[in-house]
Automatic annotation (TrEMBL), chains A, B:
<feature type="domain" description="MTHFR SAM-binding regulatory">
    <location>
        <begin position="310"/>
        <end position="584"/>
    </location>
</feature>
<keyword id="KW-0520">NAD</keyword>
<keyword id="KW-0274">FAD</keyword>
<dbReference type="InterPro" id="IPR029041">
    <property type="entry name" value="FAD-linked_oxidoreductase-like"/>
</dbReference>
<dbReference type="Pfam" id="PF21895">
    <property type="entry name" value="MTHFR_C"/>
</dbReference>
<comment type="similarity">
    <text>Belongs to the methylenetetrahydrofolate reductase family.</text>
</comment>
<comment type="subunit">
    <text>Homodimer.</text>
</comment>
<dbReference type="GO" id="GO:0005829">
    <property type="term" value="C:cytosol"/>
</dbReference>
<dbReference type="GO" id="GO:0004489">
    <property type="term" value="F:methylenetetrahydrofolate reductase [NAD(P)H] activity"/>
</dbReference>
<protein>
    <recommendedName>
        <fullName>Methylenetetrahydrofolate reductase</fullName>
    </recommendedName>
</protein>
<dbReference type="GO" id="GO:0035999">
    <property type="term" value="P:tetrahydrofolate interconversion"/>
</dbReference>
<dbReference type="GO" id="GO:0071949">
    <property type="term" value="F:FAD binding"/>
</dbReference>
<dbReference type="InterPro" id="IPR003171">
    <property type="entry name" value="Mehydrof_redctse-like"/>
</dbReference>
<keyword id="KW-0285">Flavoprotein</keyword>
<dbReference type="GO" id="GO:0009086">
    <property type="term" value="P:methionine biosynthetic process"/>
</dbReference>
<dbReference type="InterPro" id="IPR053806">
    <property type="entry name" value="MTHFR_C"/>
</dbReference>
<keyword id="KW-0560">Oxidoreductase</keyword>
Length: 594, 594
């Protein structure tokens, strides 16, 4: 979706929206950390996130890669910066073709700073001289596909700011006129350069309106994080610093904590003033940091850790080809990035269900890389790489995870349990100790309000439902006992399969069981999570592979623990169990006397 | 669906299935009555119904028409008889092409009796000599499209039964061998000629199996309805009558009631014996009569008036092109035949929703004929054609209908209220008296068991839901009051439109509101009834037209009552009102102080 459309929708609804800007980190660990941070920040529903294009195109490949993963794996509407510096038109087109094919619809078109060590911007041969040329080119070559954002300079472009720190009136007006040309040529949104004098921004908006610029103008807010950085950045951008800010910072400049607190306070006050003037969009220059930006939004009441609202039980994709995806197998519930990554070639949603397309282009598990940041591997090594003397030691690992004593799990991408799992974690602990090693579950939900904090999704006014679900590994003997007991619990349906694809089930091969659904005013029933045999068969390969690829590989070759895990992997069944009676059922009752 | 597939499914599930045979009545009233009767009988879920082909093709056109309406309007899986008598191959093909294009998949292929006044069957030029030729032709020309049934003669074909009432062993064996050839050539099901000696039927089945006939053999049961008819039929078919039957009938032969009772008793006993021998199919020759056939099935425990099971809230279509239809607008809930009739050109279900195809081939109201039998017109005249002095008289009609004091309603095809309407009929009566003239409604249902007698559907093990719904005509003033009050009831959504298409609503034009849905084990959520603006717009023409075309037309030209109705028609709005809170809502609360 184009960011401009999201902003228009929010304006109609009277909602305030905000966005976050990031830059490409210099190290692999930095990239890992950025994605983890971004993932957390995206749970607060920014309208979009953008990623910068390093000076002189220095980060081109990394920026393209990050933009792709932001859009498709983190699932946030993404905007990529693109500059003319050192970019012949072929490179420009390559970048645009790449993001287009990755389902990204938003570009921030810039002239760009000169590359490091160079003083002034120089147009290269076969390249563009300015952002205006770039906007024109994008519209000419790609029509309406892209939403195009351009930069607005409330104090005029730094190039025309003289040594006394201000632009002449003429220079300022020329700059405004140039901005209008960028908009007239096809840009649909303006984000401003950072500023610390809110009145200058408000005057700038007013001046833009005076000369007929009608598109939204989003203020770019950069929270002050530390004193030196602040000076460097404002110096580079020739930003005016109001004297009261200088006065407030001077006495605390060596106390990083105090500077950050002041930065949050200042950012909050600036935003309050902007919002009070009827501007409903805020863009935060995060400098890849999380705390200050979130603190400001919390102060403004725009986010609430206890009220994370979800439009679906899983994070809705933003890729233009995939935005209609409306159903997912439950099996990947704790591995959403694995799911998205492996189905990334599926462009036809909601038709792209497993039954129709599992043979087409399902990615291999080896493709699935960046979603296992090194920090998680370390945690796994520490919590799961312990010596295993017997099967009971394995049972205990699973139990401890369910009881919250471990934070990591080889079968989960998440940090710790999902909030709803905590509703049933004691019961889960019990059955794990009995040798039913759970890797996925959900409690039954019978018509909770759709804005209830733990199980709600889809916004207010509706009711949500879940069938109780358990997925676990267990031995053949335990499985047979369980199946026997199932005959006394007619509302239970199960599917079980081992590594060699031996199959036991009491449902049809083509049955699709909706296990999460919601009823909303004036809407059809939404049923985003299902249990079905076709995708279970695909999932089981991944589920079994994790025993060796993720867990056993924590031990050296030949280690007895490793051998034990491989025995479990080849001897156990993977079982999917649904209690279809979400009103009166008790999924754990069938385990009670095993 | 082919009948053989339905029988195979039922055999797998161990269910007993039954079917009804009808013949084309001689008069138009007779046809009206047959359809009303068939409609009632079909509510007991026969696996199929068949319609005979008059001797010598005398009823060809009528049989084709009835078969079409059985399949498409009554919505029962239909089988058409087709005989060779007087039928050149072009006529055969025309008949088969016709039923194929009408979505019928089942044919009973017969040689046929000689036409009236002719002694023996004579092959006409360009025609077929026997059922075997016909079966061969159907398979050659239509491949696997049709399920083909043939007749089996437990006592051999009447033509080879000599004057002493029995066929020679050789004739019987030839007849069996001929039956095997019919099956080998492509018939997939056998229905037997009527019999009254069950042992003969059981021996016949056994003899068939001995020579390798493997398809199901369905016993044809003809309940004795009156003595003379019984003698005529058994004489014509040369059916053996066991002496105990003769002995039982002789003393009561002039008492029709006693004969019928005996017929029910005898039919029940015959069927019991057949079922006890592991045969799970029964075919009833109804002679277009209802009572005896249903009484036998009731005695056998195969039907229960208090437990009519519905697979959906509306009767599922059987037309091969339409069998996947899975959703309907609620507006035609009391006029299902009108709905089917007007959408009969829509072959693509479930894609054939209003939003996609309302412009394509929606039939005019004038096309809608046979669904208004003369008897209903008479009832309407009597109950609704009364002098109307004021608008209050109109309110009173509507109220009385809701209170069950009237049986007919211009806006309904049904006899009286739907069972679920009785849950809310007092409340409906109240608002009708206030001038909210209801023509459609349903109570809220919050997770009733899916086999509950009044609101259940879809079989056992699930839960069904409904949002409370009201549809009514009211004046503009009343509508405005109502809309004002709606602001205090945020769970209400409404659409209102008048004859001139003035529109008021608090929902989006493309919103589709599921108002009936069900949750079943190992299934996706089924949502068969919706409220949406697109189809409401189409429906409103029919709803407004009924004021004049059905109600006002009960009065002579110039009658003051007629004028009053026309005023209401042009001044009132049609309003559709949903309470989206099916858990805690009260749809009638908004009316309480109007």
């Amino acid at each position: 979706m184009k960011v401009i459309e999201k902003i228009r929708d929010s304006t109609l609804d009277g909602r305030v929206v905000f966005s976050f800007e990031f830059f490409p980190p210099k190290t692999e660990d930095g990239v890992d950390n950025l994605f983890e941070r971004m993932d957390r920040m995206v749970s607060h529903n920014p309208s979009f996130c953008d990623i910068t294009w390093g000076a002189g195109g220095s980060t081109a490949d990394l920026t393209l890669e990050i933009a792709n993963k932001m859009q498709n794996i983190v699932c946030v509407e993404s905007m990529m910066h693109l500059t003319c510096t050192n970019m012949p038109v072929e490179k420009i087109n390559h970048a645009l073709d790449t993001i287009k094919s990755n389902g990204i619809q938003n570009v921030l078109a810039l002239r760009g700073d000169p590359p490091h060590g160079q003083d002034k911007f120089v147009q290269i041969q076969g390249g563009f001289a300015c952002a205006l040329d770039l906007v024109k080119h994008i519209r000419e070559k790609y029509g309406d596909y892209f939403g195009i954002t351009v930069a607005g300079y409330p104090e005029a472009h730094p190039d025309v700011i003289s040594e006394n720190g201000v632009a002449t009136l003429e220079a300022y007006q020329n700059d405004l006129a140039y901005l209008k040309r960028k908009v007239d040529t096809g840009a649909d949104l303006i984000i401003t350069q950072l500023f610390y004098d809110t009145d200058i921004f408000l005057k700038f908006v007013n001046d833009c309106r005076q000369i007929g610029i009608k598109c939204p103008i989003v203020p770019g807010i950069m929270p002050i994080n530390n004193y030196k950085g602040f000076l460097r950045m404002t110096g580079f951008c020739k930003t005016k610093i109001p004297s009261e800010i200088t006065a407030a910072l001077e006495p605390i400049k060596d106390n990083d904590e105090a500077v950050r607190s002041y930065g949050i306070h200042l950012g909050t006050e600036m935003c309050k003033k902007i919002l009070a003037h009827g501007i409903n969009t805020l863009h935060l220059y995060t400098l890849n940091m999380e705390k200050s930006a979130l603190a400001i939004l919390k102060n403004l009441g725009l986010i609430d850790d206890n009220k994370i609202s979800r439009s679906l039980p899983w994070r809705r994709p933003t890729n233009i080809h995939r935005v209609k995806e409306d159903v997912r197998p439950i099996f990947w519930a704790n591995r959403p990035k694995s799911y998205i990554s492996r189905t990334i070639g599926w462009e036809q949603y909601p038709q792209g269900r497993w039954g129709d397309s599992c043979n087409a282009s399902y990615g291999a598990l080896t493709d699935y890389q960046f979603m296992r940041p090194r920090s998680r591997d370390k945690k796994l090594q520490e919590e799961w790489g312990v010596p295993l003397r017997s099967i009971e030691d394995i049972h205990e690992r699973f139990m401890n995870y369910c009881l919250g004593k471990l934070k990591s799990n080889p079968w989960s991408e998440l940090d710790g349990l999902q909030p709803e799992t905590k509703i049933i974690n004691e019961q889960l602990g019990n059955i794990n100790l009995k040798g039913f090693l759970t890797i996925n579950s959900q409690p039954a939900v019978n018509g909770e309000k759709s804005d209830s904090p733990v199980v709600g999704w889809g916004g207010p006014g509706g009711y949500v439902y879940q069938k109780a679900y358990l997925e676990f590994f267990c031995s053949r003997r335990k499985l047979e006992t369980l199946i026997e007991k199932c005959s006394n619990f007619p509302s239970l349906t199960y599917m079980a399969v081992n590594k060699d694809t031996q199959w036991m089930s009491n449902v049809g091969a083509s049955d699709v069981n909706a296990v999460t659904w919601g009823v909303f005013p004036a809407k059809e029933i939404i049923q985003p999570t299902v249990v079905d045999a076709t995708s279970f068969f695909v999932w089981k390969d991944e589920a079994f592979e994790i025993w060796s690829r993720v867990w056993a590989s924590l031990y050296p070759e030949g280690d007895p623990s490793r051998k034990l895990l491989e025995e479990v992997q080849s001897g156990h069944f993977l079982v999917s169990l649904v209690d279809n009676d979400y009103v009166n059922g008790d999924l754990f009752a069938v385990f009670s006397d095993i």
